[in-house]
Amino acid sequence: MKFKFILTGMLFASLAFGAAWEQSASVQNVKAVLSSDKALIVGDNALVLTVKQQNMPIENAVVEVKAFMPAMPGMPAMESKSKAVAQGHGVYKTSLNLDMGGTWQIHVFVTTKEGKKYRLKTSLSL
């Protein structure tokens, strides 16, 4: 009986912590960490991006996210774009609408207040 209680507790703990999603992308000395407090789904997804350059937060940048899936036989290309809103300390919030399950290419565009532009690439699977 005690074993079942421990096993059940471990299962609930793994489900609670396993729901979050995180992915990172980097180019040159810029790194973006994309995360969600929930597992990604088909539909709207709230994302938090933490953007740093040489481990220092990038403040007051223009941060945009594009998720896309190329056209495949019998299916048109799909795309979702959004502009992130600065929260301070290099943290930006946005949302993406992912129309279907599968592998999505993710591009994060960062334009610093000095005008320097970066494109960071990664992917995600639903």
Describe it for me?
With 126 residues, the protein is mainly β. The protein has one domain (20-125): Sandwich (Immunoglobulin-like), CATH 2.60.40. The protein is 13% helix and 56% strand. The longest helix has 17 residues, at 2-18. The chain is globular and about 45 Å long. The N and C termini lie far apart (37 Å). Mean pLDDT is 87; it is low at 2-19.
Considering the chains and any ligands shown, give keywords for the structure.
126 residues, mainly beta, Immunoglobulin-like, 6-stranded antiparallel sheet, 4-stranded antiparallel sheet, 1 helix, 10 strands, 13% helix, 56% strand, disordered N terminus
Main sheet overview: 6 strands, antiparallel
Q: What would you say the CATH architecture is? A: Sandwich
The tally of beta strands, per DSSP, is: 10
CATH fold-level label: Immunoglobulin-like
For the record, the CATH class is Mainly Beta
Assigned CATH superfamily:
Domain of unknown function DUF4426
Write a compact overview of the structure shown.
The chain is mostly beta strands and 126 residues long. It has one helix spanning 2-18, and strands spanning 21-27, 30-36, 43-53, 56-57, 62-69, 78-83, 85-88, 91-98, 103-111, 117-125. The strands form 2 sheets. Strands 1, 2, 3, 4, 7 and 8 form a 6-stranded antiparallel beta sheet that branches.
